[in-house]
């Protein structure tokens, strides 16, 4: 008979808040974290290097610049959490879920950004000799703060009993699993307190503050001027958001926004509309309009993948159909049709063309499921690209000008408003790309409205039923083929709608813009990644995922051929540690985390 006991190699620390992760006295952890965070803040007002060869103005005393600003923010956040942990009056609202995990992530953000900066200075300039006293101080202080945070006591998990007959490999796996559970327990937080009922005015002010913070963070990130600053921004933003999430502030903000969904959505679009007014030129408005195009197409794909559960690997072709259809009727000299439709007519042509192609492709293929449907849609995407490449008058009819594409697409002119020239609004100069940014923002709002209304409708509930269990849905009387065809056609039409604007923004439409995979989005692989990364079945998830997947490759061009490698590694890590996406709906969150508390109410779309 085999008996089970706890092996001597397995840690046997009793559960309970008796000790921290590292061997420091628990009572020294919080003072060390607080002192280190305060010294980190002080160090940002000192010079970190003696030469201006490293960007960011790190040679000035008394005025933080560049990466010092990010370290200052991380240090201030960690200091506030430490003071709240001490019970300082007026700061308890910062940690509704407890302060320990928030302190650990905040100090980790400060440490990672500080040491990245110090190492970057040393590597770029040729050694530690290029550091000023502020550089040494920030390295030591941020390390001390992190060690103090890791010394805070936490609830250790109980070790599982093991079989004494286990092999060495099985013992190793058991110990590694226990150590991983211990690490997760180090950064675990409590359940945040529910927000009491506040006056509507106060709750709306909180929503406005959240939107303002989001606009500030996005504007800072998109305006980072050099590679080191963007990497530091990503480190601080990632760990900083984790700290706010562990403190419970994100959960409480979500509770407030859930009470005022319409106001939140309107506030988000107002905040986005303010973005061009924060820029001094049209440089970053260019990135903004491409992000909106990418995000709108991803939201259309979210209907197909997130709501209906249909894996479409050729979705970018519908964007191309809309772009080509609009380009052919918008007065381009490369078009064989000598017509120049107004914008509203071109939009209808592009959306209808994509819708027709969606029906034609979906009708014979949507009786397939899973991998077979994915292969068919992948084939459609490649067939579209090859076909428009061959319609050059040599290999086929002269329709799309082949690989040269349709060029010189004129700028839009709606009711006398020329999108190709600068305009002055309230004293602000709005350039060409900012004009298209506002137009694309309006189209994104239309797509969000369509997604939201369709998700809450009878057809939306049928999509969710098909996604969860198609056999059970068919047994309940749902016409699976018709429901899936509607999702396919609607998603295609929304992609075509975005394609009509893309054609005018880029001036030229070519087959190479609509690949299955590539370094530069949008392509089918990036679109699907945006939906999965952001959170399938939600509105905000694909929008955030698309913004990140467009912005990050644009800022990491210095990686060259390693961009896709870094992108792939990031996706692997995210799918390993957060498979439900960054902003998941509650239903999918419970699928991946069964131990989580069940929701009391689920919306019709499961969000």
UniProtKB/TrEMBL annotation:
It is a multi-pass membrane protein. InterPro entries: ABC_transp_permease (IPR001851), LivM-like (IPR043428). Pfam families: BPD_transp_2. CDD domains: TM_PBP1_LivM_like. The chain crosses the membrane at residues 30-48, 60-84, 105-123, 135-154, 201-223, 229-249, 261-278, 284-306, 313-331, 343-363, 370-388, 433-451, 485-505, 525-552, 559-577. It is found in: Cell membrane. Keywords: Cell membrane, Membrane, Transmembrane, Transmembrane helix. It comes from the Bacteria. The keyword Cytoplasm does not apply. The keyword Cell membrane applies. PANTHER family: HIGH-AFFINITY BRANCHED-CHAIN AMINO ACID TRANSPORT PROTEIN BRAE, HIGH-AFFINITY BRANCHED-CHAIN AMINO ACID TRANSPORT SYSTEM PERMEASE. This is Branched-chain amino acid ABC transporter permease.
